[in-house]
Amino acid sequence: MKTLVLSVMLLVCSLAAAAQANPDSTIKSLKRVYVGVEISGVPYSMWDPVKKLSGGITPILHLHAGYKLSQRVNLQIGLTYGREREDRLSGIYYGYNDTIIYHFHKSEMKGVAMPITIQINPFRTQRKLRVSATASLAPIIGSVWHQYSEEYEGTRKVTYEDEDAGIYLVATAGVQLNYKISNRLDAFGKVNLMYKDILNYSYFSFMSKSSKSIGIGLNYNFNLKRGK
Fold this sequence. Notes:
Order of helices and strands: HEEEEEEEEEEHE
Shape: elongated
Structural class: mainly beta
């Protein structure tokens, strides 16, 4: 996993260096740097294949900063934080002599995701609308905790408890539509059509990839002018 993340980072640096070394001379002024905010329902799964412990977060608010390598290719890095908690009655067991045992489940999942995204527009750039294919690789630094307990005659006993923390990796791909509101402001909508929990499998990721996630947001463009 670490090798894969390192390879992606090296590729990102190489693309940025190539863009700086070979600027598009036909453009005197290009909005290359932008920042944005996105409201999205994309989940991020966390899974330990040894402990068989899984969970995930679904942050709502995402922040990102991007760099336009060319008129057709954007590269951006995002940041989001999510936390999920659960404390519920998971079942009731009725035994002999009116014996009743209550089963409870508690869990807490939290993490920081940093999706690295590339957007490629295969068509000629339009004045107002821009349709791009988008792919993201998201390292997640997070933790998962689960506890199961049972209660009998007012006394609760923990029957299982475990936790895991580490770095996880998720990939997504889809389509994004950008609309130019002004020279500084763009609106966009995105649909993720593919979801993959890299190198691992979990019930959470299986259920997540079965439904497509969507997102909407705004980008603010900085106008950086080149010298002649």
